[in-house]
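Following up on my earlier thread - several people asked me to post the actual chain instead of describing it. Fair enough. Here it is, all 385 residues.
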Amino acid sequence: MLCFISGKKRATELNMCFANAVEQGTPAHLKGGSCLASKFADDIQCPILPGLPDDVAMYCLALVPRSFFPAMGVVCKRWRSFIQSKEFIMVRKLAGMLEEWLYVLTVDPEGIGSHWEVLDCLGQKHSVLPAMPGPEKVGFGVVGVNGKLLILAGYAVSDGNRSPSADVYQYDSCLKSWTKLADMNVARYDFACAEVNGMVYAVGGYGLDGESLSCAEVYDPDTNMWTVIESLRRPRWGCFAWGFEGNLYIMGGRSSFTIGNSKFVDIYSTEKHCWCEMKNGCVMVTAHAVLGKKLFCIEWKNQRKLAIFDAQNNSWNMVPVPVTGSSSIRFQFGILNGKLLLFSLQEDPGYITLLYDPNATPGSEWQTSGIKPSGLCMCTVTIKA
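Reply from S.P.:
Thanks for posting it. Predicted structure:
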C-alpha cells in the first residue's frame, strides 16, 4: 500500500514536471535535474523510475495525462519504448485510463486531397494529424492495433498510371508521430485487411499490372515482420475483412470465379491456419463496421437498410435507416462509445448524423448526434489508448 501511494505521488510530481517543461517549450530530458538524472537518458536498461519497481513505475507513467506523452517519449529510450509498447495500453486499461478516439479520413474543404482528424469520446475535439510520409495514395488499407493507426499499401498515380505500393506506415496515437514499418511481401490495393488477436492480415486485391490476387499475408507488430499465409481459393478484390473469435472473415467485392459480385464468405482460422467458406454473404457493400460481436453493413442497392450479421448463428437482420436530410444519402460508418455513427458521404446541409445504439430498448435504437467530421468522411478507425 505504501509503495502504491508513493507511486501515485511520484506520478503527480511527474505531471507537474512535464507541465513546466511543456509550458517553457523545452523537452523534459533537457531540463537539468528536473525529472530524471541525465545519466539515464540514453540507457534502455535503466530503471523506468529510479527507486521504484518497474511494475509500479509503469503504473505511474500510465497515470500521466495523455497530453504529456510526446514529451515523455523524449525523456529516455526506456520511457519511449514503454509508451510505444502494447504493455503500455494494457497498464492504462488496468488503471482505467484508456481513452477512445475516432480517427476520420476527411476530404479537404477545397475537395482536393484529404487529411486525418481525431474526435474524442464526445466527438468534440478536431485535432489534425501531421501528413503521412510518402506520396499520397488511394486504395490503401486501414487498421487499428495496439493504440496505433496503420496505413497499408495502396497505389499512387503518376502520369496517369497506377503504381501499387507495399509501403506500411504507422501513426502512434500516444507519441503523435509517423513511422515507416516493414514493407508487405506483395504490393497491392483494393484489398481486405483487419486485425485479429493483435495480428494484422492483408488479403487479395489488385497487384502489379492490375492482376487480381488471391495471396494473403500477416503482420506481427512484435517482430515488425510480414509472413505469407495460405492463399484464398480464388482471387478476390474490392472486398473487406473483420475479425471474430480468432477467425478472419472476408466478404463482399468480386471474385474471378463468380459473375458479378461474390456472396461467398472466406473464413481463415488463425489457429488451424487454413481457409473455409460459407455462402451467406453480403454483396456490393459500401459501408461496414464491427460493433461488439456483430457486423453492420449497408449495400449499394439498399442504402435505407442496415444489414446486421450475427456470426455466432450465421444470420442476418435488416433494420430500416431513418431519413434525415435527403433520402438518397449514402453513408460511411464510425464507432464511438459502443454506438454506430452514420456519416454522410455527400454534401447535404440538412443531414444530421444518425446514431444506432444496439443496446438501447427496442424502438429507441436510432437517435441523432452532433458528432460530425469537418468534411466528407472517407473512412474511420476507432482506437483506444
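The longest strand covers residues 302-310. That should answer part of your original question.
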